[in-house]
Each structure stands twice: as structure tokens, then as C-alpha cells.
Amino acid sequence: MRNKIPQQPAKERVKNFFEVALGFSKSEAEEEARRCLQCKDPACVKGCPVEIDIPAFIKLIKDGKQKEALEKLKEKNNLPGICGRVCPQEDQCEAVCVLNKKKIPVNIGALERYAADYELAHSSKLIAHRKELRAKSQEPRAKIAVVGSGPAGLTCAADLARMGYEVTLFESLHLPGGVLMYGIPEFRLPKKIVQNEVDYIKGLGVDIKTDTLIGNTYSIDDLFSRGSGIPPPATAGSRKMREEAGKEEFKAIFIATGAGLPQFLGIAGENLDRVYSANEFLTRVNLMKAYKFPEYATPVNIGKKIAVIGGGNVALDSTRVALRLGKRAVLVYRRTEKEMPGRIEEIDNAKAEGVIFKFLTQPVKIIGDEKGFVKALECIKMELGEPDASGRRRPLPIKDSNFVLDVDTVIVAIGQNPNPLLPKVTPSLKTNEDGTIWVDKNFMTSIPGVFAGGDIITGADTVISAMGAGKKAALAINKYIKGQALTQSEDVSSTNRKGVPKI
Ligand code: FAD
Hints:
Layout: H1 10-13, H2 26-33, H3 43-46, H4 54-62, H5 66-74, H6 80-86, H7 108-121, H8 123-135, E1 143-147, H9 151-162, E2 166-170, H10 179-182, H11 191-203, E3 207-209, H12 220-226, H13 239-247, E4 252-255, E5 261-262, E6 275-277, H14 278-286, E7 305-309, H15 313-324, E8 328-332, H16 344-353, E9 356-358, E10 361-368, E11 374-387, E12 393-397, E13 403-405, E14 409-412, E15 416-417, H17 421-425, E16 450-452, H18 455-458, H19 463-482
Parallel strand pairs: 1-2, 1-4, 2-3, 4-16, 6-14, 7-8, 7-14, 8-9
Antiparallel strand pairs: 5-15, 10-11, 11-12, 11-13
Helix pairs in contact: 2-4, 4-5, 4-7, 5-7, 6-7, 9-19, 14-15, 15-16
This protein binds flavin-adenine dinucleotide.
């Protein structure tokens, strides 16, 4: 039987922000690892966007070699603790596992997490390993700028640093990590896990500059012409070499600014007090610790009865955060559970914790009180028609079926658009109709030497696909710098972009 990962009981966890999943013990992990058939031509590796050698790391776990398993993972994946927790393995490596024919694939995600957590417990011992990796790249090479520190930017920066480049990663917020830090809640992805993997990447020599908004603090032209004047990290090469490198401009730029622009419904009442985008709500609670107000300075002014609109991971996270703040949470979704884009595991978790689901329900108006606060949400019932462009059955309103939901706060989680700032201030940076940045088959944008990847080229997608783009872009940047011909085999052009289904 497939070993399930132990969890905090639903009644307990809903009162705290600690991690829901507790992780495998050594014996549970080794038992689960023994289930892997060690296929000669493993489909799971092809199912992984960063092509981890899955059978190899699982075999090392089976043999009791957790540290070696972690090192095997890190050959391809700089963020295994994160991926082990939030990757949709059920749609990727586990979906194609041979044992999935009987619906009992190896629990690859839980094993990845088990191996990755070795680093948290033994980080001092692993510093030597990082030094070894850095030592291989002592010769300072060209300087590369990476813009945005989500999974795409972190992955690209780490891979380029391993190749010996001087990488500076610019992040507009005060902490690196992107959505991993400010979007996904603590109870699914603890901040210390993200911080630990960011520290690993810093250990490879990547210089991270937070509170720096590219497009505002520095333009793309500034990065090319004066390298922002920022000295390089004190990790590679002699002092003289570092000083020389510090004067150089950046030779290539990777844009990974994500899809952080919230979408709204466009219905009456969206300007009322206590209407939030999920983005603002989650950022206040996660990154600014609003749940600890007044100990932390950022309040989150919500009522007692919260309606969250949407059906993806972002909507599920918002309802579960609301429950942990002691509120009643209703998830309002216009299709049925079957069409929800959120992870099945998280839908089940939300149900167990007490989220109320209102399926086939579409909001039509947010009703306010005389002081301008949310008083209720008017909705209409829906039914499913023929499939639409996303392949799912289209929701259609049922005439005269309007009803009112008694809520005092509305959180809108119906999707995010690409971050518009850089294209807006950089006219030569071509975009697609949906605001994503246009890239060619090598992740190069319309500006030579400027590459892009992650949600900014696909629209809101997944952590692992952002990482996959970061990896491929790092290879393309290396070839570009060396003046080698770029391969045309990998088609990532705008016609082949595949975001997650829209809400
Ligand atoms: P991001 O993670 O968005 O990072 C972009 C970074 O760029 C941000 O830190 C931003 O501050 C910075 N930035 C933007 N503009 C600038 C600028 N001009 N200058 C400097 N910095 C800038 N995916 C999963 O696989 N599993 C999940 O369970 C999951 N849950 C999710 C839950 C939530 C609440 C959200 C919002 C998303 C979730 N996702 C999940 C999606 C996943 O997090 C994203 O697909 C992924 O983070 C995209 O990575 P990225 O590197 O492209 O961008």
C-alpha cells in the first residue's frame, strides 16, 4: 500500500498556522521507497519539468542514505523542500508512475520532502558541499541580472551561479521567494523552508538585492549600461578580479516577475470596504504577519463571515487562512468540484477543516451597508453547458435563481495577470495579448540578451513549470554569452504556452 504522509488532525490544525503535513519518519520513508520498481526507462523522470533522477534518489532513501538522496535531488532541483510540499505531483511524476495504473503511485512528493528536510536538520554539514560547488566556478565570468526571486528567478540564478557567472538577483519586496514567501500560507509551506533554500542559493554565490524594483530603481537599459553600479558578491575570485567584475555591466538579463496582478469580477460593490484581492489578503497575513497584529504592524480588517470567490489553490488557501483567523469561510465557485483547478489534496484538506463549498454559484453584486462596508453577497445559481475553450463544461446562469449570502467580507481569488510594470516602462519589450512577455524558442524576449520565464511568460501556472523555465533559460543564457548557436528544439513560443485552466 502507498504510505500517506501523516497530518495534524483537522480539528487541531485549524486553530494554528503550523504545517498541516508532518512528513515521513525514516522507517515510513524507507518503506515507501521500497515500493519503487526502479524502472529501466522511468516515465516519472520525463514527467518532471526539471528532470530529477527520481528512481536514483528514491533508491538512496531505500538504502538509508538521506544525505546522498538530497545531493542527487540538488543536481537538478535547487528547491526540493519547496517542491516536495507544493508541486502537483499527481499531475506530473506520480501521474505517469507505472504503479499509477492501479492508482497507487509511489508517493514521490513525500519522499522528495523527506530527503530535502535533511538539509534543515544538518545545514552546517552541507556548507562544505556548497563551497565545493563554488570552488568549481572560481573564475569570474560575465555578470547576469535576474529580476524577480520566485521559483523561476531563483532556479535560473542558481544554475547560472553553478556555471560560474556573477549573478545579481533583484527583488522588489523586502524578502526573496516570490509567491513561495508571500502567497502560499505557512501551514502548507513554512517560511523557514523557503528561507533555507534561498540561503542555499546565496551560498552558491548569488547576490540578492531586495527592495529593488527594476523598471523603477533601475531600468533594463541601466542594467546593460552600468550594471547598476552594485559591487559583486564577495565569494568568487580574488579581490582584484571582483573589483574588475563590479565595474562591468550585466551581459544578459532574465526577467521572472511573475503574475502578481489580481483580477477582479467587475461587479457592483467591488470598491466596498472589506473586499480584498486574495493577493492582498494573503500577503498581509503571510509576509506581514497580519495574524499577529498588533505585535506586527499590519492589520487585516476582515469581518466574521468570509466569502472567497474562485476554485484554485489561491482560493483554497484564502478560505483556510480565514478559518485559522477564527472566521467562517464559504468558497463560492461557479462550476462543480470536478472542474476545480485546485489540488485535490488541498480540496480534501479544506473540506476536513470546515470550509463551506457553494458550487454552481456566481456572484452578481456585493451589497454594502450605509457606512460602505460589505453586508452581503448576491449570487445566481449556475448549471453546466457545453465544454468551453478550457475543455471544461461552461457555467450558465439559471434565470431568476438569485439569492443572497450572509457575509461581511469578500475575497476575490479568480486569477492573476502578468506583472505589467516592466513592459510598461520598456516599450521595446514585446508582450502578447494577455500581457505575458513574448519569448522565442530560447526564452529570449524581443530585446537581444533579455530572457524571460515563469508566470510572466505563461500566466499563472505552477512552481515546477516556473523552475523548468528558469533552468532552460539558464542554459540558453550560457550559450548566448558564449556566442554559441541557440538550439531550436525546445518550443516555448507563445503558441505553445500552457497555463493552468482559468477559473
Ligand atoms: P513569482 O513567484 O510570482 O515571483 C515573482 C517575483 O518577482 C516576486 O517576488 C515579485 O515581487 C518580483 N517582482 C515583480 N516585479 C518586479 C520588478 N519589476 N523588480 C523586481 N522584482 C519584481 N503552484 C504550485 O505548483 N503549487 C501550489 O500549491 C501553488 N499554490 C499557490 C498558492 C497561491 C496563493 C498562489 C498565488 C500561487 C500558487 N501557485 C502554486 C502558483 C506558483 O506559486 C506560481 O506559479 C509561481 O510562484 C510562479 O513563479 P515565478 O517565479 O514565475 O513568479
